[in-house]
Amino acid sequence: MAHESSSNPNEVNHQPLPLKVYIGTFLALLFLTFVTVFIAQFHFGEWNLLVAMMVAIAKASLVVLYFMGLKHDHDRFPAVVFLTGLFFLGIFMGPTMYDYFTRDSVDATRGTYVEVTRDGYPPGVSVPLPKGENAATQKAD
Fold first, then answer.
1. Mean pLDDT of 64-88
2. Confidence class of residue 50 from pLDDT cuts 50, 70 and 90?
3. Residue 124 — left, alpha, or beta (φ > 0 → left; ψ -120 to 50 → alpha)?
4. How does DSSP assign 33-49, residue by residue?
5. S-S: 65 plus which of 34, 37, 71, 126, CB 3.0-4.6 Å?
C-alpha cells in the first residue's frame, strides 16, 4: 500500500526509528531492572529512597524519550510538558526529602527505638489499661 501525502500543512512526516534503537532501549531498560533488583538487596540507610528514585527516573526517561518518541519529535510542546512535569516532581520531592533526611534532627525520639506501650496506640503513648487487664495479659495477646 502506497503512502499518500496529506494536504494538511500541520502534519509532520517522519520515518520510524531503526529497530536497533528500540532493541537498545529495551536492553537498557532490562539492565536497569536488574540494577533495581540488585540494589534492593543492600541497605543504603536514609539514601534508599533517593537511589531507587534515580533508577526509576532513568527508566522513565528512556521510555519517554525513545518509546514515546519525544527525543525525535519536531514539536517542542511535548518536551515542555515533560520538563514541566519533572520540575513539579522536584518541587514535590524536595520538601519530602528534606523532611525525611532531617527528621531525626528535628525530633530526636524518632531516630531511636521506642517501645510500644499498648497495641493500637502510637509508640511512647502511655494509656491506662482497662480495669481487669494487666501488662501480662496484653503481652500474651
1. 81
2. confident
3. left
4. HHHHHHHTTS--GGGHH
5. 71
pTM of the model: 0.54
Whether 129 maps to a domain, the answer reads no
pLDDT, one tens digit per residue, over 88-117 is 988 998 888 888 777 666 555 655 555 555
Q: What is the pLDDT of residues 122-131, one digit of tens each?
A: 665 555 556 6
Residue 64: how many CA atoms within 13 Å on its side-chain side?
A: 14
Q: Would you say residue 100 lies in a domain?
A: yes
C-alpha cell at 7: 494536504
Contacts of residue 116, Cβ cutoff 8 Å, sequence gap at least 6? 123
The answer as to whether 53 is a domain residue is yes
In sequence order, which residues have a C-beta less than 8 Å from that of residue 56 and are 6 or more positions away? 36
Q: Tell me how many domains the chain contains.
A: 1
* C-alpha distance from residue 74 to each of 3, 8, 66, 106, 120 (Å): 21, 16, 14, 49, 57
Give residue 34's domain range.
Answer: 19-112
Q: Which residues contact 27 (CB under 8 A, 6 or more apart)?
A: none
